[in-house]
User: Fold this.
Amino acid sequence: MDPQAVPTEGRPLAGLRVVEVATFVAAPLGGMTLAQLGADVIRIDPPGGAADHTRWPRAASGVSLYWTGLNKAKRSLCVDLRSPRGRDLVTRLITESGPGGGIVLTNAARPWLSYEALSQLRPDLIHLRIEGHHDGSPAVDYTVNAATGFPLATGGEGQDDPVNHVLPAWDVACGLYAAIGLLSAERHRRITGRGQELSVALGDVALATAANLGFLAEAQVNGVTRPRIGNHLYGGFARDFTTRDRHRVMVVALTARHWADLVTATGLRAPVSALEAALDADFSREDDRFAYRDVLAGLAQRWFAGHDLEQVRQALSRTSVLWSVYRSFSELAEDDDVRANPMMGLIDQPGVGEHLAPASPLGTTEARRPVRAPVLGEHSAEILRTDLGLSDHQIRDLQESGVVASPLPEKKGTP
Amino acid sequence: MDPQAVPTEGRPLAGLRVVEVATFVAAPLGGMTLAQLGADVIRIDPPGGAADHTRWPRAASGVSLYWTGLNKAKRSLCVDLRSPRGRDLVTRLITESGPGGGIVLTNAARPWLSYEALSQLRPDLIHLRIEGHHDGSPAVDYTVNAATGFPLATGGEGQDDPVNHVLPAWDVACGLYAAIGLLSAERHRRITGRGQELSVALGDVALATAANLGFLAEAQVNGVTRPRIGNHLYGGFARDFTTRDRHRVMVVALTARHWADLVTATGLRAPVSALEAALDADFSREDDRFAYRDVLAGLAQRWFAGHDLEQVRQALSRTSVLWSVYRSFSELAEDDDVRANPMMGLIDQPGVGEHLAPASPLGTTEARRPVRAPVLGEHSAEILRTDLGLSDHQIRDLQESGVVASPLPEKKGTP
Assistant:
């Protein structure tokens, strides 16, 4: 990779070089986000892979679809970090990488990899560490989510048990905050010449988000704990309905216009007006729609139950009503719209085969093409040769002594 | 605000100036993320506020805690965008804002606010538009979530109905991607002198994330639809348990070490070993832990059911086991740890009162202090005077003709 690479609209981060020493979701997603916008992100793994290398889901070959999903577009260097020679290689990779380099993303607390140690060698170092909690204690998405209030507010009103999320939303948000942190620090460095040390804790991302959305203030200021309201939207009118042919649809009326269109499309003007008069309510107001949501949903459900999905689509498609059909991941994967989405493209991932995968969700004027994840150690030799200037002899020596690993020839796959 | 403001470690985005013409969650969260790192973010609202200005939850005064949560640290300009004079003011604010300006964040498709129109006046314009779907059709978090597979994979195995999330995770992620897009484009501009047009669709953020985490590949490649598994973690051992004194705890054993520590702490070595021998299984392996999760959870649950929370805490605190206690938003708000968190601080929000709120989750060497949200139009006069150079006479004229609004004196609150 040419560290002097010039940014373009589709690769605005070209010239940026990040060394990622991390596992699981948050940090790798942050690194991948930057890689998919043109940054050169080198992911460091121990020979044979780290703890996340075999995480579910896996392809029949044993390759982790989780790993290949979260590490697209990166380069892979496999090096034994228990060895002083291995640590020295990574240290040089970080500190000797030109003006766009000297950037570390990690989720572990290794003294040799710390800001203190590395900034001695590279004074303008940018170092971001993802933590579980701000005090350094460990946490994962699921433990943070439990402690932040959402599982006890999820599910129907009769629900007693906490409901965990399937999407590790805090890992995802944390990884994105890490990308924001690195880009912000790089801006600061470009302008002032100074590097810096940053951190972001999974627990803080969850706490901040719960506060940003008003949940924490509501509890502090109103003395209210957000109740369980099933699939309803808090403070408005939105809910799931079942069609005659047993499809489930989610319908959202956020504004007075959405609501008016929904009432018209479902032919409910008469009963809704009668209710408004009898209850002295005004359902064009969100508050009243929410207060009487069960009544209004009851009326609407009869309409949905009397129409097939295709009829529902006809009735709602010419309106402002926001709605969608619930579907499974399998149905999502088979959807022609997904195939046709400019963000999606085919990648041929060794051990997995050809399948649709996404490039960055950020669209620009340049066409997007996803780049597959590396095979473990795929770029070890290239990095040692091109980025660190080692000779073939030196590289072979490191491989033979197990300090560095490259894939066996038959596993290499198409670059 | 001095557009020449020099970045610092705690305010790495000082000198960046963003004009935000957007509502609801995604774009405002993106803008706030930048504002909390030092960018000057001016949020534009119509006089009286936009559709999100009264969203739940609300304080007793009627002020929206959702709005005040999502718009911290911004400046507020209230201007009638239906008026040509109003549009001209915003156009000038965007295009005449010095080298750190010329940046627009929006979630609406207004022709006068488009990249095409504005880049005529400011060739290096950076313009990011958040959309529902990539084809421009509208969507909101809840409709996107339904269509992306998660609600049908959430909840217990007996669950039939879709389970919506309470956290609008796609809004949150989309806003963070928008911040990443703006920072990336600013880097590109700083290096090449060129601006650009970007977009990010809520639907694409959800689709990309489902793919990045392996859900889409699993469906395409393995022909498997992710089943419902309640509060279990897919592919490992993690679940909720109930203590003797009726507390719910989430326990996660991701690695062999976590598992060994959990088995030791719960005194289950003997039955677990007996099972391993009888089943020819090895529970130090994640696959086997997952396959036999119900058996292992059954054993563990008896231990938790026989111990109070305090005893559980004693037993697990000296181990590597990852765990937490489920709590409500109210319990979260009352937690001393939250008060003591360096990210949190007291803000005095007009119409709400004093309460704990978060600064950026990104920690640097500088102390973090949250800055409250503006009152609607709080900075109208200041922006017209200082940023646009208008005279007091011109400002009064705009206010009297209703093109621009400022708060009534008694609503202003402490700056």
Summary: The mean pLDDT of chain B is 95. Residues 3-210+343-405 of chain B form a domain with the Rossmann fold fold (CATH 3.40.50.10540). The first strand of chain B starts at residue 17 and ends at 21. Chain B has two domains: 3-210+343-405, 248-325.
